[in-house]
Design brief:
Length: 304
Amino acid sequence: MATEEALNYNNDDDEILRPDDLSEYLAAGTKEAHDRAENSPFAKDFLRGRIKRELFKLGTAALYHVYSALEEEIERNKEHPLFAAVYFPSELHRKEALAKDLEYLYGSDWKSQISCSAATRPYVERLHHVGQHEPDLLVAHSWTRYMGDLSGGQILKKVAQRALKLPANGDGIHFYQFEGIHNPTAFKRLYRSRMNELEVDAETKKRLLAEANLAFKFNLQVFEELQEIGNGIKEEVQDISFPAHGDLGGDISKCPYYAAKMAVSGNTTYMCQLARTLLRHTSAQVLLATWIAAITGLAAWYIM
Ligand code: HEM
């Protein structure tokens, strides 16, 4: 149902969102969980390019199990009134892309080499439970994964490609490449508007938020498991200098948001980066000049 119209989405429509829209309600209510995931040691190492190949392979295998379950349940519920409007299989579904990546990373017998890890299993079980017994909650899982993949996932793609020296043809990172989406920002907008049209009562909305937080928790547990495994793997990794910033195709270290974040965490390189970034703006230069003039004036008045 959703696919035909998806072809017509564009970037020009104004997006007017209200706090009680489902998309905003979930985004605000999972903010803390998102911060925890983003600031987990695994995510931080990944963003720095400190990712071991073996761990990347295990992470891809975990995602394969998660998306196999998610997409099986999505197919089962594609006509459900609380899901049909966000059914975008050709744009979003990741199972086939992950199978391609696993074949590249493990070889043709990849299926016999991977297994569902201890942290991935409860996530997969929950997805099947929701799909079969509480399908009105499925959109919470779909939103958590696909919208995340179209946001932060686009940063991780560039980092992984560079850190693991993956080929430019996309081998190993098909998961992050949404061939059916030419403009992720416009597509996310369409997805949000479809979500916000779902007829969700107040009680279901609360359950959806709890489910989205649970989805974040499962993802964090997979990160923690990978971090733990990584501690036992001897493999050289190198910090790389943040090569890309998502769709923007720039250098993430030049992103003021990222610099501010790192500065807050006490990283002096990023404090300098933040200062440099700010000083490139005329308004910041004027502010600094005003401050210097005021301090000089005060000093002169004091001396006199
Ligand atoms: C590696 C760490 C991560 C980074 C760097 C990251 C980064 C981002 C960024 C930059 C955004 C866009 C925020 C905006 O548009 O205002 C975003 C949104 C989002 N992320 Fe993450 N993220 C990370 C981890 C995760 C994880 C583990 C999940 C869940 C599986 C997730 C799910 C989401 C969701 C659901 C959104 C909201 C999308 C929307 O409504 O537009 N993120 N993330």
